[in-house]
Design brief:
Shape: globular
Helix content: over 70%
Structural class: mainly alpha
Number of domains: 2
Order of helices and strands: HHHHHHHH
Oligomer: single chain
Strand content: under 5%
Number of helices: 8
Amino acid sequence: MDPAPSFLLMLHIAAGALSLAAAAVAIAAPKGRRLHRLAGRVYVLAMAGVFATAMSLSLASNDLFLMTVAIFSFYMVLSGYRALYLKQPAASVGLRYRVGALDKGAAQFTLIACSAMATYGGVYWFTEPLAPVLVVLGVIGSLMAFFDLKRFRTPPADPRAWFFTHMIRMLGGTIASVTAFLVTNADMLAPLARWLAPTIIGTAAITIWVAYYKRKFAGGAAPETVAEVRLRELPDEDG
């Protein structure tokens, strides 16, 4: 085996293991507290490592599945993390609290890449074993990025939209990562279980969690009262 891909694979596995561990801690920790924030940052950085190594490995081996999952899952994590900073972009003075090149560029890249993956899966539906995966993830990723670009131009009316975007995207990225891990390593499970179990269980959990917080908000609670939201705006260096 070429030592370069072998080294990348080890880095990929290490970053993946760290991301899953950090995600578990962030989910279990009280929301907004120091441990939750620290675990969340580690999770995002680890997922950046997973993304970088996965893209390199996929290009070296022409692995479209790995590339699609890498783009899909990392965009969910990145956009979910950025949602914390984009609560009120129009009223923010700090550049990192406003929609910028990172947000637009990531969404545009994801839209193009996922559209291409979905198209490829559709064209080779009968010859590519993973065509349904490419189509499903490609379509979902494309729509997610498209609506994000639309949201950047017209922010949602709900002032709590950022809260749900953060929660759903971060958990969705974790589901995608767990799915990739099971598909690659859990040979003892049936293929259908490896593909569907994380999505079914994770989607049910997200639905219940979102409903819980919606009831809280409907009762008059603000995000700051159900989670320790601690984002401080910093002025621009020139202002």
